[in-house]
Amino acid sequence: MKAETALFAGVSLFFAVSAAVYGRSSAEPAGTVALVVSCLMSALVAFFLWYRHRKDGLLPKDRKGASVHEAAGPVAFFPPHSAFPVLAAAGTALLGLGAVYGLWLFLIGAGVLVPGVLGFAFQYAARGTDPVRPTGVEDR
């Protein structure tokens, strides 16, 4: 994660310098605000990556002599087909169209989006906390 931290810190520094130069040379505040927000967002990602690197230590991809199998973790649960992503996408589309055509379509979109997102988020909540083995499955 060292390389990712340095990359996002560099992006943040670029946006900070760009905001300073643009802020001095232009009378328009919207561009300066956009560059400052971009700087802050990339700095947030850099801080998160730095914190995880500090907490987790070196990852196998950060070491030169690491093997591929060192980075492999347990195979996780891959969900089967679900209708909730389609429902959430349809709700989002209706929400966007409602912003154009009126409040009535916006409310219908919210009514479709909320169950889609909640179902998408909680459809496998009863599986348990083990990401590899579902609840109720014993070793044979």
Account of the 3D structure:
With 140 residues, the protein is mainly alpha-helical. Helices cover 64% and strands 0% of the residues. The protein is flat. The mean pLDDT is 86.
SSE blueprint:
Blueprint: H1 2-25, H2 29-56, H3 84-101, H4 103-122
Give descriptors for this structure.
4 helices, mainly alpha
Helix content: 55-70%
**Radius of gyration computed on alpha carbons:** 23 Å
**Tally of helical segments:** 4
Strand content: under 5%
Give the rounded overall mean pLDDT: 86
The helix-and-strand class reads mainly alpha
Write down the secondary-structure element order. HHHH
**For the report, how would you describe the main beta sheet?**
none
Distance linking N and C termini: 38 Å
**Overall 3D form:** flat
Assembly category: single chain
Instruction: Count the beta strands.
Output: 0
